[in-house]
Structure formats: structure tokens, C-alpha cells
Amino acid sequence: MPLIAEVFDKYFVILRPHIKNILWQMRDMILYDDEIECIIANITWNSNDWKETSSDDSGHRWVQEGGVPHESWNFDFDNKRNTKDKIYGYAKFTNQPKDYQDKKYLVIFRSRNNIIGFYGNTTISDYVGISKNESYNMVGDKSLSLLLENRIDDSSKELLFGKKRVGQNGFNKITRDNAIAILDRAKAMNPTENKIDRIKIGYYKTRTIWTLRQTKSRTYFPKRKTSFSKAHPAQEKPITQRLWH
Fold first, then answer.
1. How far are the Cα atoms of 44, 138, 159 from residue 100, in angstroms, in the given order?
2. Is residue 135 classed exposed, middle or buried when 0-12, 13-18 and 19+ CB atoms within 10 A define those classes?
3. Which of 235, 197, 185 is closest to 36 using CA atoms?
4. Where do the structural domains in the chain lie, given as residue ranges?
5. What average pLDDT does range 17-29 have in this prediction?
6. Domain 36-204 architecture
7. Which element (helix H / strand E) includes 197?
8. Does residue 14 sit in helix, strand or coil?
9. What are 116-131's pLDDT values in tens digits?
10. pTM for this one?
């Protein structure tokens, strides 16, 4: 028995990184739905990093008339309204995205022609009032949400992908490829921010093909038509098939 224990300990140390990698992939499979969409949401600028109110000028009539921007706490991760795993945020929508109750979103926040942050695996709701100056209409995963330390200046409107501005409804819907282009730009400017990688992996539902020889089980990607670009062949939903020879 001691010999068996020694062998187990030896090989467990060797295999531990691979087991951890597989567990993270399984976690992503659970966290992310197939119907994740992406929107760019326009919010009022905040010199206090959206952790408290600010006195910045705004183009939104509510703020111009003396109201408090409800997005003022969008990146106040320690706000008591948040839970351990979720962050509650706000963006002014005149109309919510179509069929929003049944979907999850990657929300890209834009303010003063800057991409400033993300909410990953987000649900969108009707407005829920907390107080006179606070409400929320979206809930993101904390582990997949962040304010960029180095924001993306998009004064050229390049990252609006043919649009001149964010629509009057408060958001623009964009494609998966466009979302990845923004995430790649954000990563290039914030190379040590690992959350960006996690958001990208989850949004694309990327999978690693591996074979577990002990059970002769293989995960593979079926050939079928999808909306994904040809540049990302690993974006198919995997099927696990047991192969017995």
C-alpha cells in the first residue's frame, strides 16, 4: 500500500496542471450559454472611475437637469448592492435589446469615445430602483467584469464598426468578430489583465480537444454550419463520444 500511495502522489503532481485545466474548461461550459450576444453601451463619463458620483459634464438630459447618473457605481465592486459573485450596473436604454429576458450578454461600456470596461455573462432586466439616485438594469459576473486601467481611445469611431455613434436607444449590437477585435485591443493595452482572456474564452466558448485514454473518451467538434467565422474553427459546441474498439 505505501508503494501505491507513493506512485499516486508522484503522478498526481505531474497531472495536476492538466486536471486543473480540464476543470476550468468544464466551468466555462457551465457558465456560458450558446446565445451570448454583445452590445456596446454608452454611459456618462465619471472621473472617479464609476465608483462614486462625480461632477463631470454629461450629454444626458437627466444629468443636465441635476440628476445623479445611475451608472456612477458601475465599477464599485465593493458596493453593498453587489453580491459575492455578481455586480449590478446601469446603462440608459430607451428600449431594451430584443428578447433580452432569454439571453446573456457581453456588455462593452463606452464613454466619451473611450472603451472603458466590460461586464461578462450579463443578464439585462427592466429597471430596478434601489433609491432615488440608484437603480440597475444589468447584472454581470464579477469574475468576468472589469474597468480597464488603460482605456481604448476611439475618437476615430473605428470600434463602432461603420456607425457614427451609439444609437439613441443607448446601445449598439455588434458581431462576435467585432467584440473579439475590441477584446484583443484591450488585451494589447492591458497585457497583465487576465480577466480579458477569461471573457474572450467564455464568449467564444473555446474548447481544447483532448483524449482521456483511460476511458477512451474523446471530445470533438461536429461539422455543421454555424455563424462563427472560419478563423475560429474551435468555436463549435463540443460533443463527447465514447469510442470503444
1. 23, 10, 23
2. middle
3. 235
4. 1-31, 36-204, 207-245
5. 56
6. Roll (3.10)
7. helix 194-204
8. helix
9. 999 999 999 999 999 8
10. 0.70
